[in-house]
Amino acid sequence: MEKSIDEINRRIRDGSARVVTADEMPDIVSELGEEGALQEVDVVTTGTFGAMCSSGAFLNFGHAEPPIKMERIWLNDVEAYGGIAAVDTYIGATNKSVTRMESYGGAHVIEDFISGKSIELRAQSSGSDCYPRRSITTELRLEDLNQAIMVNPRNAYQRYDAAVNTSEDTLYTYMGTLLPHNANVTFSGAGTLNPICNDPNLRLIGSGVPILLGGAQGMVIGEGTQHSSAGSFATLMTTADMTEMNTDFLRAAIMYRYGPTLYLGVGIPLPVLDIETVRRTAVRDSDIMISIKDFGVPSRSRPVIGQVSYADLKSGTIELNNEEITTSSLSSFRRAKMVANTLKRWIEEGQMTLCLPTRFIDTSKQAKPMRETRKVVLVQEIMQRKVVTIKEGQEITEAARKLLKGETNHLPVLNEQGRLTGVITTFDIAKAVARPERKVKVQDIMTRNVITTQADEPIDIAAQKLEHHRISALPVVDAQNQCIAILHASDLGKLFKPGGGRP
Amino acid sequence: MKLLVRLIHDSKPIIAQVVKDTGVLINVDRARSDAHEGEEALVDVPDEACIQVSDRMRSLGAEVRILEEGIRHDEEECVDCGACISICPKKVFSFDKDWKLQVETKKCILCGRCIISCPHSALSLSY
């Protein structure tokens, strides 16, 4: 048996369509069988609610008198794109306010517009004969704009890798706070309710298909940026009218030390046309596997530490290397369910009918990494190879002499085998002198927990370590933990001298 | 009941003294010593001994604030994501069967870790 989209739309119009949410479908299929479920259910609604950084909106402000072609634009001090004349702009969700960097961004501008608040527009122009005005400042509300059209380049990821942190420091990432030594795991995604997980071959989701976006009725434009269907990381580009959105399904957020992002509700109703649709919409949390990645490694290819299902993650704890770890979701399953339920109500009340894609999305695509034509600067290019060191067993006075003679503030400490075991600074010596409680050897006063770098580490990673730990030097070690050089914060200055930094 | 006790620099062992004088067992949830802000301890005492303990502490020169609740949860801002659940050392946060966030403020030791971890600024300290 098969059903046509026209038949399903006819039932929606006369109010007889049977609509269920995607999390109810697995049990319906177990109970009625595939054929039975196909006969019984007409539409399955999906939903997800989480951080969708790659989002934003096109705005048109109307013309001023005298008119201006806005070239630089700020909305509540968040810069918006000024390359689309004359009073059009695109406000991106993750852009930070120039005055309130850590607490306000593009996402907040969007949420404030939607909740009816007034936003300050400032714009500048170089002026022209047709657009003579050079600057403007005004207060605008959403209703004052001609258009506010949300167009999101990348939404509704099919699934997302979970995150842990094997390093010794707390990390603040777009995956939230990651405690050291694998003390927690964070994840994102609605699992059984996720739109694309219920249509992984993109037979029903494609260009023109109606959706819920931020509480408004919108549609899928087509594939999203970084769409990588071949690796089960499909994404969608979406659009809807911002004036119809509400804050139940759209919230600005701040990821600590990462910046602003937009939490969005996205849902897609799927017409149950055939057995294949039934089979796919019967997907459970336990069927959807994701990798756990180690964010302790600051690289594009973060090591995979394990595989888990959404069912495991949603249980509250997972097991990793025989240890139980507490999980945190960053997306809201409760709101995802609200998205699916709202879609269900719209369809039951005949407010939304369905259609098939006008263009299909390529399911064979795989996202590529960036092609880089210039070499990344490595620590070895600016480190100081001449490094003064000291042995653990030597006297503090000897360390003081070496620090003075070497004109350095950091003395790497080596053991008898020449391996790095600590570091001593002028501050440590000063402390020892101020409190002389029979501390005479270097090993009594050295800092043992040394933050190090390697010769082949990119300079940006080393700079991040210096900043994160608020220190001013990193011993450079080889694979045997021998100290081969030292990198001082001041060495970073070499990168900005003409011809500097490259041997 | 939680008490936030602020001690003056180079003060005497006030908490120990109060335990000795009153016979009330005091549990120190959290303590901090800071060069600028002085010493601060969050202590847990039985509800019925709250007044007795805080009066005695004050008479010994400490500043005492009685904290009626732990972390403050703004239900309007909260979207029930659960980012706070795994970073709380005292399991204050959990989901109910409808995936709504539950907050057991009694367990809270006001460490503040969840405040920066909440993407929606829905958690704050009430003192």
Structure, described:
The complex is a heterodimer of chains A (503) and B (127). Chain A contains ten helices and 29 strands. With 503 residues, chain A is an alpha+beta fold. Chain A has three domains: 5-52 and 151-348, no CATH class; 62-145, no CATH class; 379-496, CBS-domain (Roll), CATH 3.10.580.10. In chain A, the strands form eight sheets. In chain A, strands 3, 4, 7, 10, 15, 16, 17, 18 and 19 form a nine-stranded antiparallel sheet that branches. In chain A, strand 18 and strand 19 (259-267) form a beta hairpin. The termini of chain A are far apart. With 127 residues, chain B is α+β, with helices and mostly antiparallel strands. Chain B folds into two domains: 2-67, ACT domain (Alpha-Beta Plaits), CATH 3.30.70; 72-125, 2-Layer Sandwich (Alpha-Beta Plaits), CATH 3.30.70.20. Chain B has three helices and eight strands. In chain B, helix 1 (14-22) packs across helix 2. The longest helix of chain B has 10 residues, at 50-59. Chain B is elongated, with a radius of gyration of 16 Å. The model of chain B has no long low-confidence stretch (mean pLDDT 87). Classes of the chains: A alpha+beta (503), B alpha+beta (127). The interface between A and B is medium-sized, with 31 and 20 residues.
